[in-house]
Amino acid sequence: MRMLPNIVRNVFLSPATRKYPFVVREPFVGSRGKILFKAENCTCCGSCARRCPAAAIVVDKEARKLTFKVAHCIICEACIEACPKKDIVLDFKWRAPFYDKPMEVYNCPPKEEKGKEA
Amino acid sequence: MAPRTIAPFGPQHPVLPEPLQLKIGYEDEKVVEVVPAIGYCHRGVEKAGELNEFPKNVFLVERICGICSFIHALCYCMGVEELMKLEVPERAKYLRVVYSELSRVHSHLLWLGLLADAFGFESLFMEFWRVREKVLDLMEMTSGDRVIMSSCTIGGVRRDISPEQAKEIEKTLAWVRNQYNRLAPVVLNDYTVKKRTVGVGVVTKEQAVALGCVGPTLRGSGVNQDLRQTGYAVYKELGFEPITADGGDSYSRAVVRAKETYQAIDLTLEALAKMPAGEILNKPKGNPQGETVMRVEQPRGELFYYLKGDGSRNLERLRVRTPTYANIPSLLVMLPGSQMADVPVITLSIDPCISCTER
Lengths: 118, 359
Known about the structure:
Strand order of the largest sheet of chain A: 2-3-5
Radius of gyration of chain B: 20 Å
Order of helices and strands of chain B: EEEHHHHHEEHHHHHEEEHHH
Structural class of chain A: alpha+beta
Oligomer: heterodimer
Structural class of chain B: alpha+beta
Strand content of chain A: 15-25%
Helix content of chain A: 10-25%
Number of helices of chain B: 13
Shape of chain A: elongated
Distance between the termini of chain B: 42 Å
């Protein structure tokens, strides 16, 4: 009987849920949605790959390539904190589900460029 | 005298959120013996913790439990900090308390909902979970994720709570308290709910101590013991007092959890109000060496970590004992003598978390 006041109140309240496919909640600012690699200033230092707890990043220094195994990523932000060039960014929106395990391969800028900057 | 029958309760059972098996021997409708069996979701986290580098383990231990993930990380980080003689900034300690207590609020709300579900009170179950959703939103807003918060790290916390966020937390917790004020009396005073919980699954004070119960199971039997009394993080400054109940039955354990929810809301607000400004992270240097034991209070009870470092990047040994592991023996006292229909409620009253237990 203690529940009765709640039940009566709920009769007059609007639904607590959203009509999902039509009304989508915007993610909070700072929400860990997905990791994006810009690969613009990447020096292939490999800090992100060393810090990644899920081994989702593979950096090939010879070929100047960065491979990101999306399905392995646990979105912990360790790579973002590790990147000295602030080249990895966080997107607040979650990644859409996928059927196959995608691999993102980025070509890093060649080494000479970095030498010139320095 | 009816012949004894053995019925498997679980590992897959509608009332159990996770795979715990109880082999229940019963005569007529009365339970006479119980043999628990665990090991259905062993994941080898302890071994993985030895193979991983120690800073990466923070993300690993968080995944031991989906409900108190922050407190696992907190216990691990406190252990490593002790090994590395690392001083944690004062503000980080307060933030850790805020996150811990938010975890406790949502864990207890979840449990109260599951309890309602165990005796078939579906609408109450949904009401509790509706309120809990707002707490999860607070976690996402401050730490970036609803469940796996990843906000604790060795040497402090990773994200600060801004004044605007603190205001939002205060506002939402006021709403949660308002809603909870309407729901808690249903669990505590409703006639039908009391019929299912009062005097069911009794474990006396002496038995609880002898069986090594922890958390609300222990405090529900009248033992005034809570690891927050040791004053880790800043619980000492916040003037923490444990909540106990004397009955030792399912109802007392519900009372303890229901009151602890209020207490956790109060502690969160107090920690937010007293939080000093300053640094939140003291970056670790070097590797852990030596061995230590760290204990903190989870929503379910005492969480125990044993860490042994040998001065390398990898830990030599990582041992985790979770509260449900300590509480399962109490089921062997609670269940015999009870009715078969009460088994789900009694089993849930220790708040079993099997993913924790089997790691």
